[in-house]
Amino acid sequence: LSERIGSTLDRVKGRGRLSEDNIKETLREVRMALLEADVALPVVKEFISQVRARAVGQEVLKSLTPGQALVKVVNDELVRIMGENREPLNFRGRPPVVILLAGLQGAGKTTSAAKLARHLMEAEKKKVALVSTDVRRPAAIEQLETLSGEIGAGFYRAAEGTAPKKIADQAMDFARKQHADVLIVDTAGRLHIDEELMQEVQDIHAAVEPLETLFVVDAMTGQDAARSAAAFGEALPLTGVILTKADGDARGGAALSVRQVTGKPIKFMGVGEKTDALEPFHPDRVASRILGMGDVLSLVDEVQSKVDKEKADKLGRKLKKGKGFSLNDFRDQLEQMQNMGGVGALLDKLPGAGKLPPGAASQFDDRTISRQVAIINSMTKEERRKPAVINGSRKRRIAQGSGVQVQDVNKLLKQFTQAQKMMRKMGKKGGMKKMMRGLQ
Ligand code: GDP
Ligand code: MG
């Protein structure tokens, strides 16, 4: 697919401005890409017309070909739509603040309830209580109870035969008595949208008055995601979306569909079955996944627009002067890699990357990078300058602050030492400049 886009892009090369005419063919390819990514058809149509409106008449910068300019418009538009109004969870209310999860059966509500609870406990230091109002599936309540036990969150268990709305009421009392900051309410789902389900979840909503009503949707459901999103969006005043099973979805189309249909931001992404497999949603990464922009053109484009040349020059100068490569520099590099999307592809382009130890590229997949950046962010200024001071208790603190294990902190420090060595070598040979030039 990226090849196809690449070849049409070549054809629109060499014209000063983007026009209806010279983007027509490429837009058709983009349309195909979106459909292949399983974006719902109405959403594709709307998106294409938005991109067309934005692109036509746009001047093509000297350093860019028209094709690159167009891809950038497409990419930016995807990122803009999916990232718009993205805000952290709302806790501005009297505790316990309620988060309600709704969605079809099997979407991942119960799992997400536990993931969210763990995230809030670890990253936000909240006291969290959980409750399941799913009285239909026999094991549903036990499922959440077990998960709550695993993560050490409070769990409210109602008496057998209590109605869902009543359970929610009682759970509010329970959470208040426990002085919980947050109550997460899990609900029943159905295989298909039906009146009874919608009525039930509406009743629960009215009973607990949540500050966040999150629509939980399976990323793998593609086209259906748009349909269920529309139904839940009509029934409930949604405040956001949790996109689950993103780990199994290479295409990412559901993200755009659900965003467009509900108009609500995707707040989190589920990336596995375990309770720690929850990530903030990264529109830029999903955008490049939807477009399949791992090709050379987009790489060059991304690099041109995103590598902060000043930072690179500064780092180069610093290395020349023989000054140390600090954890701050390492973090800057990691963030740049992240901005550029496919890091594996980038490493391939770097002169000297062949000298990296085997498996080095896989240390830098997007998820790992976010974690690495979070770890560095949890360090004090002193620690970043002088990693030698990081002893066992500091490691534990850093791990806790960034929601990882101590061994992850150790791993990061080891990688940093490796990077430092590499930088030292390059600094000596003046290789940094060469490397940056190689990138452009
Ligand atoms: P519910 O019916 O909406 O409560 O869905 P569950 O939370 O019970 O999840 C249904 C299935 O999807 C379970 O087997 C989960 O382990 C799985 N699941 C949920 N979220 C994710 C995810 O982000 N990634 C993967 N791979 N599986 C998930
Ligand atoms: Mg469930």
From TrEMBL:
<dbReference type="GO" id="GO:0048500">
    <property type="term" value="C:signal recognition particle"/>
</dbReference>
<protein>
    <recommendedName>
        <fullName>Signal recognition particle protein</fullName>
        <ecNumber>3.6.5.4</ecNumber>
    </recommendedName>
</protein>
<keyword id="KW-0342">GTP-binding</keyword>
<keyword id="KW-0547">Nucleotide-binding</keyword>
<dbReference type="InterPro" id="IPR004125">
    <property type="entry name" value="Signal_recog_particle_SRP54_M"/>
</dbReference>
<dbReference type="Pfam" id="PF00448">
    <property type="entry name" value="SRP54"/>
</dbReference>
<dbReference type="GO" id="GO:0008312">
    <property type="term" value="F:7S RNA binding"/>
</dbReference>
<dbReference type="InterPro" id="IPR027417">
    <property type="entry name" value="P-loop_NTPase"/>
</dbReference>
<keyword id="KW-0378">Hydrolase</keyword>
<comment type="similarity">
    <text>Belongs to the GTP-binding SRP family. SRP54 subfamily.</text>
</comment>
<feature type="domain" description="SRP54-type proteins GTP-binding">
    <location>
        <begin position="265"/>
        <end position="278"/>
    </location>
</feature>
<dbReference type="GO" id="GO:0003924">
    <property type="term" value="F:GTPase activity"/>
</dbReference>
<dbReference type="InterPro" id="IPR036891">
    <property type="entry name" value="Signal_recog_part_SRP54_M_sf"/>
</dbReference>
<comment type="subunit">
    <text>Part of the signal recognition particle protein translocation system, which is composed of SRP and FtsY. SRP is a ribonucleoprotein composed of Ffh and a 4.5S RNA molecule.</text>
</comment>
<dbReference type="GO" id="GO:0006614">
    <property type="term" value="P:SRP-dependent cotranslational protein targeting to membrane"/>
</dbReference>
<comment type="function">
    <text>Involved in targeting and insertion of nascent membrane proteins into the cytoplasmic membrane. Binds to the hydrophobic signal sequence of the ribosome-nascent chain (RNC) as it emerges from the ribosomes. The SRP-RNC complex is then targeted to the cytoplasmic membrane where it interacts with the SRP receptor FtsY. Interaction with FtsY leads to the transfer of the RNC complex to the Sec translocase for insertion into the membrane, the hydrolysis of GTP by both Ffh and FtsY, and the dissociation of the SRP-FtsY complex into the individual components.</text>
</comment>
<dbReference type="InterPro" id="IPR042101">
    <property type="entry name" value="SRP54_N_sf"/>
</dbReference>
<dbReference type="InterPro" id="IPR022941">
    <property type="entry name" value="SRP54"/>
</dbReference>
<keyword id="KW-0963">Cytoplasm</keyword>
<dbReference type="Pfam" id="PF02978">
    <property type="entry name" value="SRP_SPB"/>
</dbReference>
<keyword id="KW-0733">Signal recognition particle</keyword>
<feature type="binding site">
    <location>
        <begin position="103"/>
        <end position="110"/>
    </location>
    <ligand>
        <name>GTP</name>
    </ligand>
</feature>
<dbReference type="Pfam" id="PF02881">
    <property type="entry name" value="SRP54_N"/>
</dbReference>
<dbReference type="InterPro" id="IPR004780">
    <property type="entry name" value="SRP"/>
</dbReference>
<dbReference type="GO" id="GO:0005525">
    <property type="term" value="F:GTP binding"/>
</dbReference>
<feature type="binding site">
    <location>
        <begin position="186"/>
        <end position="190"/>
    </location>
    <ligand>
        <name>GTP</name>
    </ligand>
</feature>
<dbReference type="InterPro" id="IPR003593">
    <property type="entry name" value="AAA+_ATPase"/>
</dbReference>
<dbReference type="InterPro" id="IPR000897">
    <property type="entry name" value="SRP54_GTPase_dom"/>
</dbReference>
<keyword id="KW-0694">RNA-binding</keyword>
<keyword id="KW-0687">Ribonucleoprotein</keyword>
<dbReference type="InterPro" id="IPR013822">
    <property type="entry name" value="Signal_recog_particl_SRP54_hlx"/>
</dbReference>
<feature type="binding site">
    <location>
        <begin position="244"/>
        <end position="247"/>
    </location>
    <ligand>
        <name>GTP</name>
    </ligand>
</feature>
